[in-house]
């Protein structure tokens, strides 16, 4: 008696479908996903503009793969083709009735392409993708462990390839948003430091100007101060001389030349 796949009884293992079926299911999922992406890629101009400017686009559009609707790791030639198609669809010249929003959408598409065209920024984008995939796998393993502790089958929703890819996609968006938030905080910090430094420089410059003005006025008034001092000295000398003269006059009036005061005459008494 030959053994059947999945065990002696031929019953599939409780943790999921037999390994032979998994690639088939994933291929079916992936084919459907690519077909959906293909349908989305040929949305009308107004629909593409709406997609690129929908709520949350400020952070959504930080992810160039999301903007261009491509998978990370897409060959550069395919990236270029997708960029050309999208840029034509949302170009302001083709959407003159909605020119302002079309320009914003076009700018988002162009920025995304430039990020992926530059090797250094492309490498950083792929690092974000790899980090998201790694974190998602760790989170899935933690969920499995928790399931086991609770006595439940170690099956999680991310076992579904579509759910796993969606979880990675969401985390990629979050990581790009976190990087942008940190960039803005760092930029604000640099701006604040520059403003503080400039304020200090202006304060030092103000003090220097005040000191310079004071020294200038001090020098200009030097002659006046010297003249005033001379006048004061001269006036003091004259005043002292007058006082001495007055003292001499009093002394002359008070004393006789003989150096004593003659006695007063008394009336005779009879």
UniProtKB/TrEMBL annotation:
Organism expressing this protein natively: Tigriopus californicus (Marine copepod)
Ranges for domain J: 63-121
Sequence ranges of Pro residues compositional bias: 11-21
Family matches, as InterPro entries: DnaJ_domain (IPR001623), DNAJC8 (IPR042858), J_dom_sf (IPR036869)
Polar residues bias locations: 224-236
SUPFAM superfamilies: Chaperone J-domain
Protein's UniProt name: J domain-containing protein
Biased composition, class Basic and acidic residues, residue ranges: 194-223
Biased composition (Basic residues): 243-254
One Gene Ontology cellular component: nucleus
